[in-house]
Amino acid sequence: MKRGNTMKKTKKKMPVWKKVLIGIVSAVLLVVLAAGVAVYAVWHNELSALASLKLVRERNDAHLDGDVYTMTVPGGFYLDEFVEQGGVKNDAELISFVTNQITKGLIPMEISDPEIACSSFTAVSESGDVLFGRNYDFSKTNTCIVFTEANEGRHASISTVDLQFLGIDVDTGLQGLMDKITCLAATYAPLDGINDVGVSCGIYMTYQGGEETVPTNQNTDKPDFTSTTLLRLILDYADDVEEAVTIASSYDLHDSAKTSYHYMVADASGKSVILEWVNDTDQTDNDGAARELVVTYNDQDDHIGEREADADYQWITNFIIQPDYYETDQEKLGYDRYEKIYEMLSSTDGVVKDEAAAMEILAAVGRRTWKNDDNNGCTVHSVVYNLTDRTAMWVPNENFDDSTAIFTFSFDKE
Question: pTM of the entire structure?
Fold first, then answer.
């Protein structure tokens, strides 16, 4: 039997150049993959926040309306680290902290505090809900409503941020990736807000120091915070008004933007408080380091005046409420708005029908319906926080009659 011829099959050898090319591509892919994993590991919360950033209302320059954005920030945004290091004493230190933590020093960021004129009050709805109303009066700007999540020992919150104090151009809004990255600093610049247990707070200018405003600048052995970081600590850590007072009492306050501020805080129980840092009278209150915290509760304010003593609610504009601080009422900036708010609230003993009725009080003292007693050109936003339901009714720049401009936010969904 003859065997047939057999042919030996041989494999073609891969060219050396192809092996080298595959090796290079594989190495590059591994490097890219490793870099992607590293970037995600370091910045996954920041990337999630950037992905959540969205425009919910476009600007209308003819009406001085800026863009309105929302952003959801997961994780702790380094606030625990901020507390652990003892806070910061000024804007420069805050910018350094935020830049180093959020961008690891790679991208410069900016934070500054505003010169603002605002109004606020507490009230109760006919259904018994506790309400906190606030106007933010300034000039055309872009706004971001920031949502943070609850963490161990920390509350979720909804807050409003003026993006010009992060360096965003008021005439353009967010332009490109760098502006969006800058928005990651927004958690450290709230102007008002509410947390998930119904604690709400706001910041208001006081123009202390007579002819030239002098910022509060305490320097004891306590840790430090700046104006907006006080609000951030209250929103994240306070279960009620008393805990907010404890936080305010535990730090040295360092006002910035060369001006001074006071604050109002309220909780779902109906208790509220005005926090002020003062030393003697307005004409002599020229040493920011000498000021001390004065706490005025809504149910312990007999010394302020008869009207305040008789009211369960509280209201605030842009002057120190402590008695004899000013020589005349004419020296009190925002006193006319203070009077108007009292007039409207006292007519119903601090009870309003609902959030829309509370918004009507804010409309009555907005920039478009009230004479300007300062240089602020518009009411940037009006908000009524429902401390019982933990919701917010939010309106940009007095667009009260435009249903598309009335936003309702809650902790369940935007």
Answer: 0.88
